[in-house]
Write a structure and sequence with these properties.
Shape: rod-shaped
Number of domains: 2
Strand order of the largest sheet: 2-4-5-7-6
Number of strands: 8
Low-confidence stretches: 1-13, 506-510
Structural class: alpha+beta
């Protein structure tokens, strides 16, 4: 049977974070490309609407300034043209400005989903063209009089209007071009009124200025599109973060429900499993010891021994799973008392001595006998020592040596160190070994089978005591497990208290 790898398990749980991010990026790119294909200007539809909305806001806000400018220009042109002509031009200019403003207000009031962006854009282009054409009619003023200052005045007004038009219509480039075309044509017609060098130079400068305003308009359009793209990316990121938060909340809720279901399952199954196991262990031990007489077949005794050993293994596995579950759920209660760490370690070594002798292994102890007592849970401390020693015996080859050290830490705490001469653990497999049911590759090949819960339980119990857990290992150089307890748990001996002196009795003469 092929071995199940971590990658296969991960794929079974769903896509990785990198894969999910790549899929989101591809989906976003496809959506953006689809919107660009359906757009008339090569941008996303949301950008089309935003650019038109910005234009409409500019036009709506420029109504009063433009009307004021038209009135001032008409009043100034009355110095050269008849008042009736100036008034008619002013009325036409105000009417064109009002029409564009009304169209802009109507656009802003409509629902974006029900708008036809193509029609709206065409209205904007036609409106700009018509309004600029009205402004271009100012060239009629120099036709009334042959005055150089009148031509200069009209040229200055056309340049100002070109600057205002290109800036207001910057977010709709075609509208900016349409608005600038009549103004440039009107400026060029001034050459027909005079062929003087000064006039040619002024007209050339005016046309160049208008083209420069068009360049600034294109630059402003590019900046606006860039700002919209940045805002869209930011909104997309916020949306992804909100979705990720929602997914995280849902995953946490499911994890809490699963953890609760696991706790209920373990609480129920622990009783359901232990009750028949106790019967199996009891009856198999009776048959193994032949309490009611020898077996008719020698194989029955061997079978009963296997049943008893298998039952003990299953009971130990159940106990380890329950212990780890209580530790992970934070329900493992510590019954703390003053203990001698050296005594607990020595007792654990004595309990494991029979297993070590069976493999011809030797213990080498370096224990400081002057260590004071430690405030800890005796059952948890004994389980820590037994798990670490059991691992060392399992992974040490026959004839190997196990070194046990107990002493002071540099910070004033106490530590236990167990080092074996087993196959060791590659550095990249240490996280696997520290996970529940995890086992290293070399350990699987060379050691006895186990549940893979020993070290996670040890680390959980050490964390409950506020201590530290360290695993040092190199392939073919052995493994060292170091468990430290903080100085706050060391019970320093207090100095003896001096009894107060009894007060001296004084005799008084009668």
């Amino acid at each position: 049977m092929s071995e199940i790898t971590a990658q296969m398990v991960q794929r079974g749980r769903g896509p990785t974070a990198e894969e999910a991010a790549r899929r989101r990026k591809v989906a976003r790119d496809v959506r953006s490309a689809r919107e660009r294909l359906t757009s008339s200007i090569g941008l996303e539809r949301a950008f089309d609407y935003e650019l038109l909305r910005v234009y409409a806001q500019y036009r709506r806000g420029a109504f009063l300034p433009l009307v004021t400018l038209a009135c001032l220009v008409a009043a100034a042109s009355a110095f050269w043209a008849p008042i009736l002509l100036s008034s008619a031009w002013c009325a036409a200019a105000i009417a064109a400005i009002a029409v564009n403003t009304v169209l802009s207000r109507s656009f802003l009031r409509q629902d974006p989903d029900g708008l036809s962006l193509r029609i709206s854009r065409r209205r904007v282009i036609v409106g700009e063209l018509a309004q600029s054409a009205v402004w271009a009619l100012l060239v009629l003023v120099p036709l009334q009089v042959d005055a150089a200052n009148a031509r200069t005045y009209v040229m200055v007004v056309l340049v100002i209007v070109a600057a205002v038009t290109t800036m207001l219509a910057a977010t709709v480039p075609l509208a900016a071009y349409a608005g600038l075309l009549p103004l440039c044509a009107a400026t060029a017609t001034l050459l027909a009124l005079s062929r003087e060098v000064e006039t040619v130079l002024l007209v050339g400068m005016a046309v160049c200025a208008q083209l420069f305003f068009l360049f600034l308009s294109n630059h402003l359009h590019a900046s606006t599109v860039s700002a919209l793209q940045s805002r869209a990316e930011k909104d997309a990121i916020f949306g992804e973060l909100e979705q990720a938060k929602a997914n995280s909340d849902e995953a946490r809720r499911r994890a809490e429900e699963a953890n609760l279901a696991k706790s209920r399952f373990l609480a129920t199954m622990s009783h359901e499993l232990r009750t028949p196991l106790n019967a199996i262990l009891g009856f198999s031990e009776v048959m193994k010891n032949e309490v009611f007489g020898p077996h008719a077949a020698a194989s029955y005794k061997e079978y009963s021994t296997d049943i008893h050993d298998s039952g003990l293994h299953l009971l130990n596995l159940i106990n380890e799973i329950l212990d780890l579950s209580r530790i992970e759920a934070g329900r493992y209660e510590l019954n703390e008392e003053a203990l001698q760490l050296a005594y607990v370690v020595e007792e654990g070594r004595h309990m494991m001595a029979l297993r070590a002798r069976a493999k011809n292994q030797t213990f080498r102890e370096m224990i400081d006998p002057s260590l004071p007592r430690l405030w800890a849970d005796e059952r948890a401390l004994r389980q820590i020592v037994l798990n670490v020693l059991s691992n060392a015996i399992k992974f040490t080859p026959p004839g190997g040596e196990i070194v046990i050290k107990v002493g002071w830490t540099s910070s004033g705490g106490q530590y236990v160190s167990v080092k074996d001469t087993g196959p060791g653990i590659p550095e990249d497999e240490i996280p696997t070994v520290m996970s529940s049911f995890g086992r290293g590759s070399l350990a699987i090949k060379t050691a006895e089978q186990g549940s893979g819960l020993g070290l996670p339980i040890v680390k959980g119990l050490v964390d409950l005591h506020g201590g530290g857990f360290q695993l040092k290992s190199q392939p073919r150089e052995g493994t060292e497990v170091i468990v430290t307890f903080p100085a706050a748990r060391v019970m320093d001996a207090l100095p003896a208290m001096a009894e107060p002196a009894a007060p001296a009795r004084s005799s008084r003469a009668a």
